[in-house]
Amino acid sequence: MATTASTASHTFLASVTLEVADLEAAQRFYTAFGVADHLRLKASAATATGFRGFTLALTVSGPATVDGFLRAAVDAGATVLKPAAKSLWGYGGVVQAPDGTIWKIATSAKKDTGPATRRIDEMVLLLGVEDVKATKRFYVGQGLTVAKSFGGKYAEFASDGSGALKLALYKRSGLAKDLGVPADGDGSHRVVLAGAGAPFTDPDGFTWE
Fold first, then answer.
1. pLDDT (mean) for 156-182
2. Taking a C-beta distance cutoff of 8 angstroms, is the pair 140, 180 a contact?
3. Which of 72, 86, 156, 158 is the right S-S partner for 9, CB 3.0 to 4.6 Å?
4. pTM: predicted TM-score of the whole model, two decimal places
């Protein structure tokens, strides 16, 4: 059974920084993709193999907008991991950016009610973790407030109130399956989270600054 909480969070995810090997190339890609204003980029020589343990998910208004973002990503050099398709929950697809970051673009709407736009309703950083309950407890201890929780399967934390950027936890193996990639991976996550509190590293190795 899902639980919800409406209490305002003292700490929340304020920004996401992707560590990339080629900063200029990444800037070009994310500008063409249409998400450059929603994240930060940092040049890094850190390496990773396989699944890096997270995805960035965009929620948009309708199927045509999903298709527009996916098309822009592919035109800019992304690889399709899951073609856009209808499902029980809506419509969406998954791509992998040239820097290795996996992006999911989805909508709960199964039909368009207007023309395609380039508007992002919400961006969610979804971390694939080994133990959702334990990591959720850790984050609560760091000052985050749980907004939704589905036992040991999924947890979502309250945002800054704008709803523009959210943090959520999902079982690593389940997240990899949903994205269409093997769950194995090693090396750096190549993503840095930022909030209002002191720096820390969570149980799965994700760093906050």
1. 92
2. no
3. 158
4. 0.93
